[in-house]
Fold:
Amino acid sequence: MAEQLLHMSVSCLISGRKFLLTCIYGLHSIQHRKPVWEQLRHIGQQQITLPWVVLGDFNSVLTPDEKHGGLLVTNREIRDLADCVSFLELFDTQHVGCFYTWSNNTGHSKIDRVMVNSTWLQDDLDIYTEFLPPGCISDHSLSITTVFRESRRRNPPFKFYNMWAAHDEFESIVQEHWVFYGKGTTQFVLKKAF
Structure:
């Protein structure tokens, strides 16, 4: 445990599988974040042979296209995280939901992530993350990560049966549920409407 990270070993009670988990909270300035990247490198150099998940608020983007609005991203801002991720061979998990995970209503950034090491990928373990819209509880997206659920169907098809349209109340039901009056980000309102 350190100021900006918590590192642990996790054992699944159902499958018996073990993996390492590191939770990150990167501080707000580049200089104050430097120790967390050094500590991650140190953990990674301990011959990690188990699958490893690194997640949390990194407070830094990996690439300039992960920020929209506000000041432009400089190479100095992304260098430390990018070097650390490259050194440790970490990769973003498959994810759905919001791309930008933080918003102050004028700027949006992807500063929250869930990443795995190459061992996780080589073992072909199942993991995916859903990033919910920011603004409900915090200006960050809530992330829900699911692991070891191998039976998950990917992209199930939408099916519409014509018999539904023949129902007497079909149009009124669709009209009633189509309109959604809600508050929040545009993404949140769109998601709740459907």
The domain at 5-156 is CATH 3.60.10.10 (Deoxyribonuclease I; Chain A).
